[in-house]
Amino acid sequence: MGRLLFAVCVVCAWDAAHLLGGGMLFPRDSPTREVKELNGLWSFRADFSPGRNAGFQQAWFSGPLRESGPVIDMPVPASYNDITQDARLRDFVGWVWYEKEVWIAVRWLRDGNTRIMLRVGSAHYYSVVWVNGEKVGQHEGGHLPFEADIGAVARKRNGTSCRITIAVNNTLDFHTLPPGRVEYLNHPKRYPSGYFVQSTHFDFFNYAGIHRSVLLYTTPKVYIDDITVVTNFSDSTGLLSYQVSVVGSTRPSVRVSLVDQDEKCVASSAGSSGLLKIVNINLWWPYLMHEKPGYLYTLEVQVTAEAGNSFLEDMYSLPVGVRTVQVTSTQFLINNKPFYFHGVNKHEDSDIRGKGLDWPLIVKDFNLLKWLGANSFRTSHYPYAEEVLQMCDRHGIVVIGESPGVGIKDVQSFENASLAHHLVVMEELVRRDKNHPSVVMWSVANEPAAEMPPAGPYIKTLVAHTKLLDWTRPVTFITNSNFAMDHGVPYVDVVCLNSYFSWYQDQGHLEVISLQLNEQFEDWHGKYQKPIIQSEYGADAVPGLHNDPPLMFTEEYQKAMLESYHSTFDQKRKKYLVGELVWNFADFMTGQSIMRVAGNKKGIFTRQRQPKAGAYVIRERYWRIANETGVMPEGL
Ligand code: GCB
Q1: What are the GO MF terms of this UniProt record (predicted)?
Q2: What would the pLDDT profile of 297-334 be if each residue is shown by its tens digit?
Q3: What confidence tens digit (pLDDT) does each residue in 59-73 have?
Q4: C-beta of 602 in contact with ligand 1 (< 6 A)
Q5: Is-contact 144 383, C-beta < 8 A?
Q6: What is the 3-state secondary structure (H, E, C) of 440-493?
C-alpha cells in the first residue's frame, strides 16, 4: 500500500476479537425489537487531498460534514463511483466520508433497558464510524456486516438528532481480501507529483461505498445474540438441533417453537439448546427438485430474564429449512438425492448502482434465474447481501457461498497477515450465513496462485479452519490451475474447475474443446475420486455482434462455445460431474484494460439483463435437464 494511505489505515487496525465476540443475526422486527432504515440520501465528500488524510487531520467527523467543505448528495445503498459525471470520483482511491442526521425515538432513548444498535450491511472496504463525533466502531472487509452499540453515545444528547459519520476507504493492499497494491509512479516528466494507481488481480471493478442498508435497531438489554440450527431427518421425521446464545443474563429462560407455513406449532422445547422432532416433515428442497421448493419453517425464540428489578423479554423469528447435504466420490446429495448444479456465476453489479443493493434488480435476477431453469449460483467472488440469500432460501435456489479471496496472486498475499485475516473473514461469513438452507457449500477462494510454494499450506489451513467452523457443509476452493492438483485440492470435498478452452488458450479453436475438456475431467477425477463442478466456462460476446461461421466476441461464438462444452458435460454427468455454472449470468464492469471492452462481456444477459443468443442455449438445456431429472414446482 502507498505510504500515505497506509499511515491512515494503521490507525484503524481492526480488533477481530471484539467483532467476532458475538452473533450477527439479521435485524428483524419482533414484538421486542424495532428496526429503522437509514437508507436514502446521505451527505458525501471524497477526500481528494494528496495524502487522502485531510479528513482525519481536520477531524471531519467532529462537526457537520458540510462545514468541512463542499458536500454532495449520495444515495445509500450504492457504490459512489458511477453516480456523478466526475471520472476522478469513479476511479477514486482513498477515504470518502458519508454523513446522515437521524432522529432516534425518545422511547428508545428513555428506556435504559433498550440497546440501540447501528448496523451497516456492508461498506467497501475499510470503515470507521462515529456518532456525534465519537468513534463507535470500525471494520475491515467490504462484503460482510458490522455493527456498534450506540446507546450510550446517543443518550448523551437526549432529544436532539444524532449525526452518523462513516468514513470508507477502498484501498487494497497485499493483506486485504481481495488483495491489491497501490503503486506510486515517480517520474516527474510523465506523471504529476504524488501520482499513484491502485492495481489488482481480479476481473471486476473495485466499486466502493456503502453497498448495503444502514439500519438502527433495538433489542432489550437481555437479548438473543445468536442462534445456530443444524438439521437432519429420518424417514418422515425432521430433526432440528438448535443452540441459542443469550447475552445480558446468566440465567435466562429460553423457549423455542417451530411454526409451519400454516402457522401451526409443530414442535417446541425449553432451554438454550435442544433437539426438535418434526413429524411429517416438509423438507427444504431445491427449485426443480420438488413441487414445493424452498419450504421454510419459522423458529420462534423467546427469552425471558430478570435484570435488576425488571423482567426483560426478547423474541426473534428465524426462517429455517430442514435439509441435509452430503458428498460421495461421484455425487452431491441433498436430502440423500443426487443434486446436479445447473446454474450460473453472478456478480453484484449493475448500471449506476455498481454494487449497491437494489430490490428491483434482485427480483429481476431471480425471475431470470427461473426463466433459465437455473437451480443454483455461486456468489463469485465475495459474499452477497443477506437479502439475496433469503430469496434463495424462499425460492429453493442453491448457493455456493464464496469468500472475497479472489486475485491472491502475489507471494506477499500468502503471508501470515493475509492468512489471519482470511480466517477471520471465513468466521464472519459462516457466522452470518450458517442458518441459510440454500447455502450448501463454502468456497474459500477463487483461483489463488497454486503454483507458489506457500499456496498449499495456506489453502490447507483455510479449508481445515472452515470445516471446524461448520462440519455440516462441504468446503472447496475454485481453481484453474494444474498445480492445484498437488497444492490444495487434496483437502477439498468437491473439485471446482474453471476453464476457458478456445478462449484464453487456442483462441478461436472451438474444435479443441471436447478433447481438452475430456482430458481435464478424466485427469482430475482419476487423481482424486471426488465429484467435480465446472465452476466457470464461457466466452465474451458483444451484444449485437454477429458472424457466421462464429468469430470470437460474436453472439454465435459464445453460443457455439457453450454448446461444445455441453456435449462433454452430458457424458461426464453420468459419472462424476455434479454441476456446471456458466461464466457469467450478466455482463459486468471491470477495470479498464485492452482485454475488456467497457467491462467483461461473458454474460449470457447484458448488463441491463437482456438475453443474448447464449441465454437461449442455456435456457433450453437447463429445462431439458430439469424435465429429465426434476420435479416441476406446483403451478408452473
Ligand atoms: C476467471 C475468473 C473470473 C473472470 C473470468 C474471465 O477465471 O475467475 O473472475 O472474470 O475468468 O472472464 O476471465
Answers
A1: beta-glucuronidase activity; carbohydrate binding
A2: 999 999 999 977 889 999 999 999 999 999 999 999 99
A3: 999 999 999 999 999
A4: yes
A5: yes
A6: EEEEEEECCCCCCCCHHHHHHHHHHHHHHHCCCCCEEEEECCHHHHCCCHHHCC
Q: Distance (Å, rounded) from C-alpha 203 to C-alpha 512?
A: 25
CA distance 454 to 458: 6
Helix (H, G, I), strand (E, B) or coil at 241: strand
C-alpha cell, 380: 463469485
Rounded to 5, what percent of the chain is helix, strand, coil?
25, 30, 40
Q: State residue 4's pLDDT score.
A: 38
Contact 436, 392 (CB under 8 A): yes
**Phi and psi based region of residue 133 (left: phi greater than 0; alpha: psi -120 to 50; beta: remaining):** left
Q: Is residue 257 within 6 Å of ligand 1 at its C-beta?
A: no
What distance in angstroms lies between residue 449's CA and the mean position of ligand 1's atoms? 14
Which among 200, 201, 202, 203 is the best mutation to test ligand 1's pocket, defined by most ligand atoms within 8 Å of the CB? 203
Q: How far is CA 43 from CA 102, 555, 619, in A?
A: 12, 43, 44
What is the model's pLDDT at position 489? 82
Three-state DSSP class for residue 116: strand
Instruction: Ligand 1 pocket test: pick from 201, 349, 499, 536 the residue with the most ligand atoms within 8 Å of its Cβ.
Output: 536
CB of 583 sitting under 6 A from ligand 1: yes
Burial (CB < 10 A; 0-12, 13-18, 19+), residue 49, is: middle
Residue 573 has pLDDT above 50, yes or no: yes
Q: How many CB atoms lie within 10 A of CB 360?
A: 9
Rounded CA gap, 230 and 222, in Å?
24
> Strands 332-334, 114-120: parallel, antiparallel or unpaired by DSSP?
unpaired
Report which residue type is found at 394: R
Identify which of 591, 594, 569, 571 has the alpha carbon closest to the alpha carbon of residue 582: 569
Which residue in 121, 301, 321, 124 sits closest to 225, CA to CA? Answer: 301
Closest C-alpha residue for ligand 1 atom 4: 203
Q: Is the CB of residue 537 less than 8 Å from the CB of residue 478? A: no
As a whole number of angstroms, the distance between CA 599 and CA 127 comes to 27
- Give the three cell numbers for residue 338: 443426487
- 3-state SS string for 180-224: EEEEECCCCCCCCCCCEEEEECCCCCCCCEECCCEEEEEEECCEE
- pLDDT 10s digits, 130-145: 999 999 999 999 999 9
Cβ atoms of residues 528 and 497 within 8 Å: no
Report d(CA 127, CA 168) in Å as an integer: 5
Count CB neighbours of 273 within 10 A: 13
Instruction: Assess whether the C-beta atom of 480 lies below 6 angstroms from ligand 1.
Output: yes
Q: Which residues contact 245 (CB under 8 A, 6 or more apart)?
A: 23, 224, 225, 226, 227, 272
| Residues carrying an active site annotation | 447
Alpha carbons within 13 A on the beta-carbon side of 397? 25
